[in-house]
Known about the structure:
- A two-stranded antiparallel sheet has the order 1-2.
- α6 (126-141) packs antiparallel against α7 (147-177) and α10 packs across α11 (234-245).
- It is built from 20 helices and two strands.
- It has helices at residues 24-38, 44-50, 55-83, 85-108, 113-123, 126-141, 147-177, 179-200, 204-208, 216-232, 234-245, 248-263, 269-281, 283-297, 299-324, 329-343, 349-356, 361-388, 393-410, 420-425; strands at residues 15-16, 19-20.
- 77% of the residues lie in helices and 1% in strands.
- It is globular, with a radius of gyration of 21 Å.
- The protein is mainly α.
Amino acid sequence: xxxxxxxxxxxxxxxxxxxxxxxxxxxxxxxxxxxxxxxxxxxxxxxxxxxxxxxxxxxxxxxxxxxxxxxxxxxxxxxxxxxxxxxxxxxxxxxxxxxxxxxxxxxxxxxxxxxxxxxxxxxxxxxxxxxxxxxxxxxxxxxxxxxxxxxxxxxxxxxxxxxxxxxxxxxxxxxxxxxxxxxxxxxxxxxxxxxxxxxxxxxxxxxxxxxxxxxxxxxxxxxxxxxxxxxxxxxxxxxxxxxxxxxxxxxxxxxxxxxxxxxxxxxxxxxxxxxxxxxxxxxxxxxxxxxxxxxxxxxxxxxxxxxxxxxxxxxxxxxxxxxxxxxxxxxxxxxxxxxxxxxxxxxxxxxxxxxxxxxxxxxxxxxxxxxxxxxxxxxxxxxxxxxxxxxxxxxxxxxxxxxxxxxxxxxxxxxxxxxxxxxxxxxxxxxxxxx
Length: 435
């Protein structure tokens, strides 16, 4: 059975422009919380390098963080269904605040690598609890035929907070007040996001949206299918691998590209923050555009040719073109825009998993979360391994491009689960729906 099948229609939120309006403040909280979580992203690797740590140690910090985030991503959906999304989101917020304070005070401020590694690793468990807890809440409150739009809004808020606001804010604050003070400031954003959830999200969705009517045994059985589906369905297996590979550049490049751009190519720290900020700036728009385009031209077709094969080229271009013209800010920004344009074409990935297993959508979403979590890991892990073996940055970039090419080939082994009716009617239902 599917946990989601027990949802009661009367408990759904009214939906406007694809967003369940009862969760408006929850979406805002998501953007604010992820701003705090992403403030250090554009500067942490360079700061650790300036403290005297090499690429191998810097990559290790990012890799173990991504590993714990992957585990938490897998577990967060299940525990949210068992204990309630609001409780799990608040747990994630408190966890993040405590471990971040330890990371800054005992690790970064004291230049203690052991404390940095331990606290940053443990902090990796926190943000998936907040993020995927809210994802479950949206699933509970949104009519099934509007779920793609509602989850699209989640990724837009994630990008606005984690990518755009965090990048530009850090670019302004770090030169003015310093990196450590900026890290302390991020606590305020995480606390504000948690407070908004505490005061504005009602508990009724945790139980009344259908989850409370399912026994814990059934929930755990459905969660276990998140593993068995991978081995029972070849398409699900290859979809999982492609889900892992699609974010190689997104989470792998921040490990070493800030160092390369500022140390080798002559860009200032603020210029790098601008380049990476522009990379995220366009994504809320391109996420929506690619969703519409994918419904017209085909989910897998789009991900294969524009996503994987497109990223094969744009990942390489993001390294080679700025290297040929060092210090050229406009060219670097154009390369970042091209990379963002191809990366966001993976938007249909979220629709493919539940459609591959329509009788077990909850388990299929768990597989997607697992792939997304390990997608955070694969880029930093590849970088850490190759730097540990004394490879150069250029070799890592070539490897990233090769992985995207392999992902494109794998899409030929995934059956097309897209219903034809979705392609034909999606535009007619894409404006405003209110029930």
